[in-house]
Design goal:
globular, 127 residues, mainly alpha
């Protein structure tokens, strides 16, 4: 079978993932910082109702789903998904700048207003 989903395991809030990422970064554990920061991105999107809480969702599925919602950060989301997969499944070590970048992306997205579809323009929407 393929890799587990981004949020498989014990359910935690985005704040809990962020705290774990911050502790890991401070301790020099860049790999855990990457994983926890990407999990914070994913959980925050669920908490903001930008993503459904689907078990088994992959990092790239998160990136593809959030790209249109955060178009200015779409390329960073794709890169963060690659980093997450490389660290968690490829057993690669995260570079210091990669760990900081995923954490910074989480902070950026948390402070960014999402671009939501215009329901008035959606086929079948009530006008």
């Amino acid at each position: 079978s393929g890799p587990d989903g981004v949020l498989d395991g014990p359910a935690r809030s985005a704040a809990e993932h962020r705290a774990a990422a911050s502790r890991a970064l401070a301790a020099g554990d860049r790999d855990t910082a990457v994983v926890e920061s990407y999990r914070a991105i994913t959980r925050a999107a669920i908490e903001r109702t930008l993503l459904d809480d689907l078990p088994g969702r992959t990092a790239h599925e998160v990136s593809v789903a959030l790209g249109p919602v955060f178009p200015a950060s779409a390329a960073r989301l794709a890169s963060a998904a690659d980093t997450f997969d490389a660290v968690l499944y490829g057993r690669r070590t995260a570079a210091p700048e990669a760990a900081r970048e995923v954490a910074a992306l989480d902070a950026t997205l948390a402070a960014t207003r999402p671009v939501l579809p215009d329901l008035a323009m959606t086929p079948g929407a009530r006008r």
